[in-house]
Automatic annotation (TrEMBL):
Pfam families: Asp23. It comes from the Bacteria. This is Alkaline shock family protein YloU. Belongs to the asp23 family. InterPro entries: Asp23 (IPR005531).
Length: 123
């Protein structure tokens, strides 16, 4: 299904696939939230991205997101930030209304170690 936005200049159709990509990108833009590892036949394949499913009913969007939270950040705070950022990004970029964002924290990911002072000077 596609989202349909009616304006004074006409009608704009927005595919669910486009909204799904916006949701995944918004998760990646949120601090301490990240994607899930990908695997094929039990072998790790490069890249980590959140997974999302989106349902669009006219101008209402419902999103389901699977993501990881960097350990030891508080899961509740991170998911609150993700939910707010996904809602803002989808509404600002599409004009559609986000009714609900369901989040499944599928993994607690070890956050990257802080760079040492010597590494920061080299960079």
């Amino acid at each position: 299904m596609t989202g349909v936005l009616y304006t004074e200049r006409g009608r704009t159709k927005i595919a669910e696939r486009a909204i799904t990509r916006i949701v995944v990108r918004a998760v990646g833009e949120t601090e301490s939230a990240g994607g899930l590892g990908r695997s094929l036949l039990g072998m790790s394949v490069g890249g980590r991205a959140a997974r999302a499913d989106v349902d669009v009913d006219g101008t209402l969007v419902t999103a389901r997101v699977r993501l990881s939270v960097a350990y030891p950040y508080p899961v509740r705070e991170v998911t609150h930030r993700v939910r707010r950022h996904v809602r803002e990004r989808v509404e600002n970029l599409t004009g559609l209304t986000v009714r609900q964002v369901d989040i499944d924290v599928a993994e607690l990911a070890r956050s990257a170690p802080a760079a040492s002072a010597a590494e920061r000077r080299v960079s």
